[in-house]
Design a protein that fits this description.
With 297 residues, the protein is mostly helical. The protein has helices at 2-18, 21-37, 45-69, 71-76, 84-87, 92-113, 116-140, 144-152, 155-164, 169-192, 194-199, 205-209, 211-229, 231-234, 240-262, 268-296. It has 2 domains: 1-166, Tetracycline Repressor, domain 2 (Orthogonal Bundle), CATH 1.10.357.140; 168-297. Helix content is 82%, strand content 0%. The termini are far apart.
């Protein structure tokens, strides 16, 4: 009995790992911010709960497909070789059926509790990540993360549309922020794991163009990101609190990118990567706090 219980628990953990819960959580934070920024009134609890749940389930389904398609690559890389499909703890077919179930349930929740536009945009994002990026771009071009990053940048737009029912400039600006953030975020990790990507024959930028070229592009994209994050203030979407936070966070990101470019610290690549995660979280929290501060004035 104890053995069966342990096997069940291990299987449950494996299937949870397939959904990349930490990545999905960060996506849901940006989706939630998109919802709360979309209105001056409160967001209804059913949209808040089931909208984010639907988006999260679809994102989890796309992550499962990524595990299945990349199982050969994952087995070759230290960062991913213990993943459930790569190690054979979960077979590809059950994993794909799990992904399908997650996607269908997520789509159903979005159609019932939000609106059709949110559901179809979420589906497009799912297919963009699972099929276009994972199935093709990742192996086809060193610009894979730039082009494919659009799918991962969609959550704040999805959250906004779930509440408002339409697309406008503000959520597209939020998408642009994540779109500009993705290359320096992921290329920093690619630098840290360059040998593993080369071993797996994945044409990441450090593998195809070298470390110096990649560091320069991380620096350039960090400058672009800083400029883009000032746009919410420029269009009067946000106020001075957000502006101060965006400048402080962005200049710190730029500092990390400069340190990485100069090569003055041995572990600057992974340091830049880790900072980039906290940076995005803090930036969206600043957007949210500023929004409610403006409403209270």
């Amino acid at each position: 009995m104890a053995t069966l219980l342990n096997a069940w628990r291990a299987g449950w953990r494996d299937y949870l790992e397939l959904t990349k819960p930490k990545v999905v959580l960060l996506m849901l934070i940006t989706s939630l911010v998109g919802m709360l920024l979309a209105t001056r009134a409160g967001v209804s609890w059913n949209v808040l709960l089931f909208g984010n749940l639907g988006i999260g389930l679809c994102a989890g389904g796309a992550a499962v497909v990524n595990h299945v398609v990349d199982r050969r690559i994952d087995a070759l890389m230290a960062r991913t070789h213990k993943r459930p499909v790569a190690q054979g703890r979960v077979e590809p077919l059950p994993a794909l059926l799990f992904a399908l179930a997650l996607a269908l349930l997520g789509m159903a929740l979005l159609l019932v509790f939000t609106n059709a536009l949110t559901a179809w945009l979420t589906l497009a994002s799912l297919l963009g990540y699972a099929l276009l990026y994972t199935g093709f771009l990742k192996r086809a071009t060193p610009q894979n993360i730039v082009i494919g990053g659009l799918a991962g940048a969609a959550p704040p737009l999805l959250g906004w549309v779930a509440v408002s029912g339409h697309i406008s400039a503000e959520p597209l600006l939020l998408v642009l922020i994540i779109f500009a953030w993705t290359p320096p975020h992921f290329w920093a990790l690619a630098l840290h794991r360059k040998a593993e990507y080369a071993k797996a024959d994945i044409p990441m930028l450090p593998v195809t163009h070298g470390e110096r070229y990649t560091k320069l592009h991380i620096l350039l994209y960090s400058l672009i990101l800083l400029a883009v994050t000032l746009l919410p203030y420029a269009i009067h979407m946000s106020g001075p609190l957000y502006l101060a936070c965006a400048l402080a966070l962005g200049l710190r990101f730029l500092h990390w990118a400069w340190v990485l470019y100069r090569g003055s610290r041995p572990h600057a690549a992974i340091g830049t990567f880790k900072y980039s995660i906290g940076y995005l979280f803090a930036l969206f929290v600043a957007l949210l706090v500023d929004h409610y501060l403006l409403l209270s004035l």
